[in-house]
Amino acid sequence: VREIPSKFNIDSKSMEESPFLKALGKEPTRRIPVWYMRQAGRSLPEYREAKKNVNILDVLKNPDLTAELTLQPVRRYLVDAAILFSDIMAPFDSEALGLSIVKDKGPVITRPLSNIKDIASISHLGFDYQQYTTEAVKILNSELKVPLIGFVGGPFTIACYLIDSKPSQKWVKTLNLLRESPELFFKILKVLSATLSQAIEIQVNAGVSCMQIFDSWAGILDKESFIKYCQPAIKTLVKKARVPVIYFGLNTGHFLPILPDCGVKGIGIDWRISIDKAFSVTAHRVAVQGNLNPLHLLDPIEEMLAAAELVLKQGSKYDGFIFNLGHGILPETDPENIKRLTDFVHDYKRPA
Ligand code: CP3
To answer: What's the gap between Cα 247 and its chain centre?
Structure first.
């Protein structure tokens, strides 16, 4: 039996007990909840040890190992939530698309989307997704004492990988398809949102407490395109979820005010917009999660904590603030810094 220490609660998985879920519901909490995007993974020596050189897509087919990798950061840092170890591309691991996840690079697609005939390849979930995901969530629910966050990629971000076929900065093929064939693009997002809805349903039925939509690249769109292509897709996903949903993206300041109307309960923001501004432009209708630049975790500890304090000074004023980074933990981060940061957030006193 794997022991999960909990400094604060015997069991804080329930809505009544979990500071994370309470903050997501904009209820007051004594201490500020914290978890980190990409908290599981390459910054942890026990991750490298357990995963060996197995490719992530093969790791996922082993639910016991998936559960172990999910639990590692919870044990080490005592964060307020676990996030299922998976990848946004896992639901698209199919023969039709030819997905691989290349070390130090990311998702690569052998047969990218380019025309209407390709739609069939994205209309169903990939290899064994339902079975291994359900199994991993069930194992985790029996072992965790904090809530488990499930996740999917945002439909636009998934479209970027499927159309451009590999990680990019500018996503030129994707943006060209949007300009040249807006109807096809709309259809792609619609079909993706249906498939992602199935992935959400599987995770929720298996028992996750909350869902995060990682729409990392949607911020490259102008507001009008976001409204036209992403908003309907996000609404579809939120409706399907039946649990609270957090929407995260980089560079999303220009469309944050639209997100509460999509039904999300929380927004994850990066360091380009302040916590105060995020609360004010959404009229305090949703929780705000973020937004320390992950580069600060590479600083000496005192400098890192000074940067974190600037975030906490703003966030601690509000019910509905969840401390996180503005993007995922970088692989070269020292776990000791993450531990110190977590303790610092937990010890931080809210203003009287
Ligand atoms: O947060 C967690 O700890 C859960 C695990 C998780 C992974 N990917 C595991 C992973 C989560 C939440 C993701 C989300 C994800 N994946 C996003 C959204 C967040 C973001 O970073 O913007 C994106 C864009 C991807 C796509 C992806 N997967 C990329 C670009 C890469 C390569 C670069 C990288 O970050 O490693 C991956 C591979 C990947 N996903 C790894 C892990 C642990 C590394 C593969 C390995 O260790 O073999």
So the answer is: 8
On the CB side of 28, CA atoms within 13 Å amount to 5
Instruction: Evaluate whether 166 touches 104 at the Cβ level (below 8 Å).
Output: no
Beta strands in the chain (DSSP E): 82-83, 99-102, 106-109, 148-153, 210-214, 245-248, 266-268, 287-292, 321-325
Q: Could you give the C-alpha distances from 324 to 67, 79, 233, 288, in angstroms and in order?
A: 22, 10, 25, 10
**70 in ligand 1 pocket by Cβ < 6 Å?**
no
pTM: 0.95
Q: Ligand 1: does its nearest atom lie under 6 Å from the Cβ of 106?
A: yes
Q: Which of 68, 87, 289 to mutate to test the pocket of ligand 1 (most atoms within 8 A of CB)?
A: 87
Angle between helices 182-206 and 155-164 (to 10 degrees): 120
CA-nearest residue for atom 2, ligand 1, is: 38
**Ligand 1 within 6 A of CB of 75:** no
Closest atom of ligand 1 to 167 CA is 30
Which residues have C-beta within 8 Å of that of residue 180, sequence separation ≥ 6?
A: none
C-beta 284 within 6 A of ligand 1: no
Closest CA to 88 of 174, 217, 270: 217
Terminus-to-terminus CA distance in the chain, angstroms? 42
Q: What is the pLDDT along the chain (352 residues), one digit of tens a residue?
A: 344 544 444 456 666 789 999 999 999 999 999 999 999 988 899 999 999 889 999 999 999 999 999 999 999 999 999 999 999 999 999 999 999 999 989 999 999 999 999 999 999 999 899 999 999 999 999 999 999 999 999 999 999 999 999 999 999 999 999 999 999 999 999 999 999 999 999 999 999 999 999 999 999 999 999 999 999 999 999 999 999 999 999 999 999 999 999 999 999 999 999 999 999 999 999 999 999 999 999 999 999 999 999 999 999 999 999 999 999 999 999 999 999 999 999 999 998 8
